[in-house]
Design a protein that fits this description.
The chain is of the alpha+beta class and about 950 residues long. Among the domains are: about 160 residues, Immunoglobulin-like (Sandwich); about 70 residues. It has an 18-stranded mixed sheet that branches. Strands 5-8-3-2-13-16-15 form a 7-stranded mixed sheet, with no helix packed on it. Helix 5 packs across helix 6. The radius of gyration is 32 Å and the shape is globular. It starts with a strand and ends with a strand.
């Protein structure tokens, strides 16, 4: 049974963030990964005495490093990585407003300072600071390395003890780790100088393992939990508490969480202490995490080899977010997972949380247990952790039905969530669908390559996690599940605590599977192969002994066997495996007793297929309608079928994320109707007809159509039409982001629209062309030009107008901004149809906004630092208040018509204030509610009034 404990010890774990926080480079930096060869100076142990200074947010201490020269040559310098110095400078390539939210009071650095270096006898050793190569980041590199200069060369096989006096600073931040937030200090890797191989300059980033022994002193009122096999309190003196942490095996770090309000509950599993650490309010999650951890450890050890270590800490991170991070004996979980676990519905994040823990715990096997090059070969860490965790998840909840929200019980909010997102399947929609989007965007690259070589940095997380997992699933299809699991167990036995390369793993896999996997690794791990195997022909004829079906397959890759499943006319199934030997197309003979009614290839979805729709014959079209049986399975959002949904008000269809359309017919409700006009309605039925279509064509092209006829009178054909067919073309630039690799940013957005607007039967056709340029990430500025042309020949005189809009955010200091905006709109013709006249629709305090041919508008808004940040205040158990941001504004303009007589000048100016309330939504979405008050300053028909605006998104 779990037991309660205040401020008790911690356990072992490994590392990287959950996919919803996907800044991979910062994770690798946090992990402090540097190359450590087997033939170079090696740290065999670290003896560290460290004290936490809560006034300065630093750890001050001394470490004794036992070094042995494993190389064949004498060395006179020993390099150490100063990981904290990689965060010593702000990112010069990003506008500060983009990073303000990450810090408590503006940019706050992390750093490690070296005061002196000595040998075993206390004699001083010379040292210097050196820059880190730009393999992951391209800034804050100047003091990334400490080079200790020995008095005499260290001979091969010889040992030396080096004492380093150092001080490391936590950042006051509200994102990630290596920081202090809510008086809680967290740091996973690299808070001490870490010995690295001088060959790190060649580009490999690996975290070496060594024996760690740490004595940590903290204020008496604080509690500490460390990722170590043994933790004990040595005593308290003069208000200072000393804690000892040590391991029974080489590890890659001693991660820490320290704070005055930490509590824990714990349990025992097969001799391993599992301890869940939480901040006030997090006990329910902590107890749930203990239960999940036991079940995850049961599965991982049974399938993938024994658990290393005797303790495991699962800790609530003080900073918000839907993420997980791991280290030796240690898992940090983003506070949002804990605080929102039952919001807006009871248990809504249970499955997400379980998967997250399964992934992070898997790093104790792969990534931390088995180390690797986290720069070029991070697949060994993240792809394998995904394979372990998704295998666990599908073993418990199945692999094909909705499995992320299917456990929710009936309820008002629950039913709404199931209606909108109940289809979600972990593998299909969190791994395969992102991979398909990666292909569609043209961001695919080899899984294995240094970050600096990446030409599509935008896709690095999906390539490493999702494509990396799918590649392992495909390897399972080639050699079999049992064989792959045997390989993983053997790898753990041979490489736990060491560094495994992809080439070593390939050789191990070939030896155990007795297969030649060279083509698989060349094409799918080191290459950019894609697969689209499909059924292109189907012919059945009778024979004396039954029936023979000739199945024509296209898109074959000889690397992959193809499983075929036939459904016979009596509902039974027959299976066979086709192993291609060559060619991209082939015909397969399938003999059955009864005729085949349907056939599918790769029914278990083992292959990384770019298009599963052609895996079926006949093609799979699924129709949902009101008359389906209540027991019929939910259709959801399959990746191998075209979905059509028929409802009482309309019909819609979609295929994956490629395209979607809908057509709805609704009774028209006049928004200006009152009781008097309601009683005087005649018998005519007015309708609203709405049609929508959207398609993603590629990285730089999307097409959409929206059409609406309101107040349609079927008897007269009268109504109001607003229809637009739009092509959006993106133009990409490659701004510096501070990360190595090439980043693609859609700075240019061009839209071409052909539309019709106005009253039926003669609406006004028009052509619109707009060009927008976004200056991010260095300058928060956007400019847009739009040209609208009337299309002649449809009973409307030719017309034209042009509009410019610009907006910019200026930063005064941390979280204090001035937003400025302006627009100018001009008619290029004497007349404009009424539907195309300009008006100041941005204003809140005027009943009448004049319309005209010429318009100028300007606005300025001062945005103040939030009154509340990361509040956590619960709102009816539906969500929690995140922040309240105040602002004041002045906006106004002039709209002028082309008049034959005197016209009202159309000047309107108002001032006001607003409060922006931000609430977290589901899985990283946010909801913004603005409550404001505007007062007219210039203009007629104005009156002070409140206004409300609702927005949000991912």
């Amino acid at each position: 049974m779990p037991r309660d404990k205040k401020g008790s010890p911690g356990g072992p774990m490994s590392g990287k963030r959950f996919r919803i926080a996907l800044v991979l480079a910062s994770l690798i930096v946090a992990a402090g990964m540097f190359a450590f060869g087997q033939d170079s100076p090696e740290a065999t142990s670290y003896e560290i005495r460290i004290s936490l200074d809560t006034e300065m947010d630093t750890m001050v201490g001394i470490q004794e490093v036992h070094v042995v020269n494993r190389s064949s040559e004498a060395v006179d310098e020993i390099p150490f990585a100063l990981i904290a110095n990689w965060g010593a400078e702000p990112n010069p390539y990003l506008h500060p407003a983009l990073t303000d939210a990450q810090y408590a009071a503006g940019f706050d650095p992390t750093w490690t300072r070296i005061s002196q270096v000595r040998d075993a006898d206390g004699n001083p050793l010379s040292f210097r600071l050196a820059p880190t190569p730009p393999f992951l980041l391209t800034f804050s590199l100047e003091a990334g390395l400490l080079i200790v200069e020995l008095d005499a060369p260290l001979a091969p096989g010889a040992e030396i003890l080096i004492r380093i006096d150092f001080e490391t600073k936590f950042a006051r931040a509200s994102a990630g780790d290596n920081c202090v937030a809510k008086d809680t200090y967290t740091w996973r890797f690299g808070w001490n100088p870490v010995l690295v191989d001088s060959g790190a300059l060649a580009g490999r980033f690996e975290l070496p393992a060594a024996n760690y022994h740490v004595e940590l002193t903290i204020p008496q009122g604080y509690h500490a939990f460390g990722g170590a096999d043994m933790q004990q309190e040595l005593g308290t003196e003069a208000g200072i508490k000393t804690i000892e942490l040590s391991n029974q095996r080489p590890t890659r770090s001693v991660p820490l969480i320290i704070g005055p309000e930490l509590s824990s509950v714990s349990t025992e599993w097969n001799g391993v202490t599992i301890e869940a650490v939480y901040l006030p309010g997090g006990e329910a999650y902590a107890r749930e995490a203990l239960s999940y951890a036991e079940e995850i450890l049961d599965y991982h050890t049974e399938q993938f080899g024994p658990f290393a270590g005797t303790r495991l800490i699962i800790a609530e991170n003080p900073t918000s977010g839907f993420f997980g991070m791991a280290a030796d004996g240690f898992v940090l979980v983003g506070a949002s997972i804990v605080r929102l676990k039952d919001m807006p519905a009871l248990g809504i994040y249970d499955r997400v949380s379980e998967y997250l823990l399964a992934h992070e715990i898997a790093h104790l096997w792969w990534g931390i247990g088995i180390g690797t090059d986290f720069n070029a070969e991070n697949w060994i860490s993240e792809g394998f952790a995904e394979y372990l965790s998704i295998s666990y998840f599908e073993d418990r909840y199945g692999g094909f039905n909705p499995n992320l929200l299917s456990h929710l019980q009936p309820g008002l909010v629950e039913d709404a969530m199931l209606e909108s997102m109940g289809y979600m399947n972990l593998r299909q929609h969190m791994s395969e669908l992102p991979y398909l989007a990666l292909l569609q965007l043209g961001f695919d690259e080899p899984i294995i390559q240094p970050m600096a070589d990446s030409q599509y940095l935008n896709g690095i997380t999906i390539r490493t996690y999702s494509k990396g997992y799918l590649a392992l699933r495909a390897l399972e299809a080639i050699i079999g599940k049992d064989t792959l699991h045997t390989i993983l167990v053997e790898a753990l036995d041979e490489w736990n605590g060491k560094l495994l390369s992809v080439e070593d793993f390939k050789l191990l896999a070939e030896r155990i599977s007795q297969s030649d996997l060279a083509d698989f690794f060349a094409d799918w791990i080191y290459g950019t192969a894609q697969l689209d195997v499909g059924i292109s022909g189907f012919d059945t004829h009778a024979m004396e002994s039954g029936y023979q079906t000739l199945l024509t397959l296209s898109g074959i890759d000889p690397i992959f066997p193809v499983d075929i499943q036939a459904t016979l006319t009596d509902g039974s199934t027959a299976e066979m495996r086709f192993v291609p030997t060559c060619c991209s197309a082939d015909t397969v003979a399938f003999e059955t007793v009864l005729p085949i009614s349907a056939i599918a290839i790769d029914p278990d979805e083992m292959l990384p297929d770019a298009n599963r729709y052609n895996n079926h014959w006949p093609r799979k079209i699924m129709v949902d309608h009101p008359f389906r049986s209540a027991d019929a399975p939910e259709i959801g959002k399959p990746l191998d079928a075209y979905v059509i949904d028929i409802s009482p008000t309309g019909i819609s269809g979609s295929f994956r994320n490629d395209h979607a359309w809908s057509l709805m017919l609704l009774p028209h409700i006049d928004p200006n109707m009152d009781w008097e006009s309601f009683n005087s309605l005649d018998d005519r039925l007015l309708l609203d007809l709405v049609g929508v279509f959207a398609a993603n064509i590629g990285r730089d092209l999307g097409i959409s159509f929206t059409g609406m006829i309101t107040a349609l009178d079927l008897q007269t054909g009268m109504g109001e039409l607003d229809a637009m067919l739009t092509a959006r073309i993106l133009g990409f630039t490659h701004p510096q982001t501070g990360q190595a690799g090439l980043y693609w940013y859609p700075s240019w957005q061009h839209t071409l629209t052909v539309g019709a607007l106005g009253a039926l039967p003669r609406p006004t056709p028009y052509l619109s062309l707009s060009v927008q340029y976004d200056s991010q990430p260095t300058i928060l500025m956007r400019n847009r030009m739009q040209l609208v042309l009337g299309i002649p020949g449809f009973g409307t005189a030719p017309f034209a107008s042009i509009t410019w809009q610009g907006e910019r955010r200026l930063r005064l200091f941390h979280l204090m901004y001035v937003d400025v905006g302006a627009s100018i709109a001009e008619s290029l013709s004497q007349d404009l149809p009424n539907e195309f006249l300009f008006s100041l629709s941005q204003l809140h305090s005027f009943d009448y906004l004049p319309m005209g041919h010429h318009q100028a508008y300007a606005a300025i808004e001062a945005v103040f630092p939030p009154l509340v940040r990361d509040s956590g205040y619960a709102i009816l158990n539906l969500t929690r208040l995140d922040s309240i941001t105040p602002s004041v504004f002045i906006q106004g303009g002039r709209t002028q018509a082309n008049c034959l007589s005197v016209c009202e000048p159309g000047i309107r100016v108002e001032a006001g204030a607003r409060l922006a309330f931000i609430f977290p939504g589901f899985l990283g979405t946010s909801i913004r509610l603005d409550i404001g008050y505007a007062v007219p300053l210039i203009g007629v028909d104005g009156s002070a009034r409140a206004f409300f605006e609702l927005g949000g998104g991912f």
